[in-house]
Design the sequence.
């Protein structure tokens, strides 16, 4: 996870505080029992944190937390899930047909820090984690 730590260290936060939101999401994932995190860096495109449940067999991940890097001075977050692994009671996500590794998924975008939005995403992450080994 050295590349992840380096990425966070070198990320210059701005008024949007998306770095703060990403760190809170990352820490929530790290606290999940047995979790495996992959980090895929594609500078100029995205930095992707991909969690995997230890009992997960059918899919390579249960969520993707992406830092969209099309403008490094105005990075934003897109957190995506498989459609069948979460609920979206407040209808905050966008359904993306075939958008998550070829499967239908929901993506939730944050272009600025929103405490309630981060809590909502953490709840979805916990929900997907619980369903990942089913």
Sequence:
């Amino acid at each position: 996870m050295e590349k992840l730590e380096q990425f966070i260290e070198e990320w210059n936060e701005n008024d949007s505080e998306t770095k703060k939101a990403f760190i809170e999401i990352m820490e929530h994932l790290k606290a999940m029992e047995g979790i495996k995190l992959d980090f895929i860096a594609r500078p100029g495109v995205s930095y992707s944190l991909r969690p995997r449940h230890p009992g997960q067999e059918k899919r390579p991940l249960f969520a993707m937390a992406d830092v969209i890097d099309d403008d490094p001075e105005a990075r934003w977050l897109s957190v995506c899930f498989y459609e069948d692994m979460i609920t979206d009671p407040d209808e905050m996500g966008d359904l993306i047909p075939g958008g998550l590794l070829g499967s239908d998924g929901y993506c939730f975008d944050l272009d600025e820090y929103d405490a309630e939005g981060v809590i909502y995403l953490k709840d979805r992450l916990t929900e997907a984690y619980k369903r990942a080994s089913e």
Summary: The first helix runs from residue 2 to 10.
